[in-house]
Amino acid sequence: MSVDDSSHFLASLRLRMPAPIRLRELIRTIRTARTQAEEREMIQKECAAIRSSFREEDNTYRCRNVAKLLYMHMLGYPAHFGQLECLKLIASQKFTDKRIGYLGAMLLLDERQDVHLLMTNCIKNDLNHSTQYVQGLALCTLGCMGSSEMCRDLAGEVEKLLKTSNSYLRKKAALCAVHVIRKVPELMEMFLPATKNLLSEKNHGVLHTSVVLLTEMCERSPDMLAHFRKLVPQLVRILKNLIMSGYSPEHDVSGISDPFLQVRILRLLRILGKSDDDSSEAMNDILAQVATNTETSKNVGNAILYETVLTIMDIKSESGLRVLAINILGRFLLNNDKNIRYVALTSLLKTVQTDHNAVQRHRSTIVDCLKDLDVSIKRRAMELSFALVNGNNIRGMMKELLYFLDSCDPEFKADCASGVFLAAEKYAPSKRWHIDTIMRVLTTAGSYVRDDSVPNLIQLITNSVEMHAYTVQRLYKALLDDISQQPLVQVASWCIGEYGDLLVSGQCEEEEPIQVTEDEVLDVLEGLLVSNLSTPVTRGYSLTAIMKLSTRFSSVNRIKKVVSIYGSSIDVELQQRAVEYNALFKKYDHMRPALLERMPIMEKSATNGPTEIVQTNGETEPSVVEPKHPPLVTQPANQANDLLVLLGGNDVPVIQTTMPTKPASAGGELLELLGDLSLSGGPAPAPAPSVPTSQPSFLLDGLSSQPLFNDIATAAIPPMTAYNKNGLKIDFTFERANPNPNIAVITIHASNSTEADMTDFVFQAAVPKTFQLQLLSPSSNVVPALNQGTVTQVIRVLNPQKQQLRMRIKLTYTLKGSPVQDLAEVNNFPPQSWQ
């Protein structure tokens, strides 16, 4: 058979083959599938037929086959084998083929596949096509999946179409230009001349896409932002025409003229007016008109009002306009739509710091949102309620929040309890109210409170001398009612141990005293020791309380028996306590009354920074103190065991460090972690004992009469990032001190990229025993938001043995009213810093 005969045979055979089914028939067939397996079988059978058709280069049904393939792709089945067929359709002269080909390219291709570069020339030809619809297809495809290479090659064609008088092409070219700018920002200036006349267009489609293009350019370039600020009056005029225009069926949506264009213009005005007085002044009137004239009965109007509120809050608007915006958000809180209520609460939470009084007017509505069934609305309402608490409304707000704490889901209890603690500590009107509030939280949500709530409450009770009898009586009653809340039981045990004599004597004046015997008190504490609900920590509190009562009660023999029983406890901690207390009874009984006397008043002061915080009746009063460089003393080796375990060092038994005069509450947890070592700078202590001459000289020996940093020599030590988490970044820079090269001077630089300031910032550090460390006072205890400043602090480290430097750091700060604490270990110091 000759070649011509073979070709004729194949052609006739192809003509006799049945035509592939249409897309509608395929959809109808697939929808009849009863199971997933049956559907997969249909898809696989059709894909096989499509592959065969592609192999035979069947141009007649290529468009139909690619359309079916796109439908299968939409269902989630693989369709990558149709990519080249899409390119063939794009190269076709038929509009129907081009339409399916470009659609396939947008769905099946992206810039990760090299195949897409093959269509660059086709798109360029189609951008210059005589038919606007073909040009529109090319613009849509380039604006959807064009890579940076394609955008560079075709940007000139897009810019030409942006200047055309055809509205259909101009709107598509504007959106395509947005994609080009996103991919290749340096091409932005190419489109600048074409943007001059875009806002003069009457076609709303062109106006909409033009505003999108201007917004993109302003967001990406400060120069463009300054250039386009002169367009504010024109944008205001367009927005005013939209509001004042009559009914237009072409643009009307629920009685509002083109809300999509209004929203876009408001967003652009927000960008243009931010931090600019003149632009803000020019748009104040129109924003007031939009805010007062927009219908709120439909969701369309609410969308425009929300954008208006955001614009008013971001620009330098007048105070009356800001109050109007907050009142709009207050009306949103009464809306039946949960999404609108959530948006309103979120927006109010952002503005409460700057417009506190205006938000306060809607306090009752915000509190009502705590009763909402939607958990996201309840959480936002809770956060906003805590932000609204101040000294004037503390009693009413705490009443509502405590009621919420009683009835809320477990997921809210921890955050709510923390918020109540912070608010009560800051705004408590009296110490009795403060104690009652904290006890109410411990009674209702004790299992959810933070770990530091127990020592904080104990400190509060200790410092409230006149409330001791009242407090111990209240706690004893609470203990009789419920012993499941472990933090409450721990505080109650501690108070009964300290003030048990006041409980038995009935000296309470604030409320009617109760009649309690010594045996009844001991029965309660012994019950805690054997209760299955008690944790090991709670049992330790109870045993210590019983031991303290040996100097306050007359039932010493009974207490001796209880203590001796737990000398063989399987709990090592409890056993150790009991053995030590037994030794007090036997060997050191003469010292027992002095050792177990009442705790003195605990002073609460900050450990970091030049400002000391003095607690006064729930209010914090800062008092400036002079930063001093503390003298240096030697720490005994047995006090550093915890630090050794923490950092894995066990080679040097002695660590020398600075010692402040008194322990500070803010650093208490770190001191406990590091074996009662103070590693931060503080007020100067009493004169320290002299260091034996046989030991190496410490970090600052001989420098007491000189400026601290007069002998620092800069060395070529590269900086490093020691910590970068949750928006807080800690950088270390290094220097060498002369004449001692063993001393490394590390300066920390703390920066904050979040939207809110980090307050009460405390940086603490610890090193192994082979090193000596001094941490000096920081430049501030507030890390400014948005990287607008840094907090610096100096660390001096003596490394006589030239070992690799390791450091454990602890960071504590308050962000948006919530305390944050984190530990990190730094092991990647540059070798030049320790060699």
UniProtKB/TrEMBL annotation:
Residues in GAE domain copies: 715-830
PROSITE patterns according to UniProt: GAE
Sequence intervals crossing the membrane: none
Major localization listed first in the record, in broad terms: membrane
Record's bilayer topology term: Peripheral membrane protein
Leader sequence residues: none
Family the entry assigns: Belongs to the adaptor complexes large subunit family.
Phylogenetic placement of the source organism: Eukaryota, Metazoa, Chordata, Craniata, Vertebrata
Pfam families noted in UniProt: Adaptin_N, Alpha_adaptinC2
Subcellular location: Cytoplasmic vesicle membrane; Endomembrane system; Golgi apparatus
Organism, scientific name: Larimichthys crocea
GO BP of this protein: intracellular protein transport; vesicle-mediated transport
Annotated SUPFAM superfamilies: ARM repeat, Clathrin adaptor appendage domain
GO cellular component, one term: AP-1 adaptor complex
Name of the protein in its database record: AP-1 complex subunit gamma
Keywords per UniProt: Cytoplasmic vesicle, Golgi apparatus, Membrane, Protein transport, Transport
